[in-house]
Write a structure and sequence with these properties.
Blueprint (H helix, E strand, L loop, with lengths): L2 E5 L2 E3 L5 E8 L4 E10 L6 E7 L4 E3 L7 E6 L4 E6 L8 E11 L6 E5 L3 E5 L2
Length: about 120
């Protein structure tokens, strides 16, 4: 069983910074990509940032230049450094692990964290 545990959300003033962390645990052979999505009430979940095994990183246009996604492969952990935060960044952020294999022969599955609230407000 694979679990994703997120941390680092909270309340911050506009222009401030927060760092989210997400650690994957369990029987893990490989993870293709790890990243972050967010979902506002009544809206679809959207990609924030994603980093693949080869290092290719994708960002949503709305966060490019403000957020930095990084990954520690040895620890199966992904980080999201968020700077210059805006009120419109307020929502729940979800960690995602894409194409997780538990062995070299097995199926690959996707996993989600429980979500962490980020609130940007003065």
């Amino acid at each position: 069983q694979v679990q994703l545990v997120e941390s680092g959300g909270g309340l911050v003033q506009p222009g401030g910074s927060l760092r989210l962390s997400c650690a994957a645990s369990g029987s893990i052979f490989s993870i293709y990509a790890m990243g972050w999505y967010r979902q506002a009430p009544g809206k679809q979940r959207e990609l924030v940032a994603r980093i693949a095994s080869g290092g290719t990183t994708t960002y949503a246009g709305s966060v490019k230049g403000r957020f930095t996604n990084s990954r520690d492969h040895a620890k199966n952990t992904v980080y999201l450094q968020m700077s210059s935060l805006k009120p419109e960044d307020t929502t729940v952020y979800y960690c995602n692990a894409d194409r997780v294999a538990v062995n070299m022969w097995g199926n690959e599955n996707d996993y989600w964290g429980q979500g962490t609230q980020v609130t940007v407000s003065s």
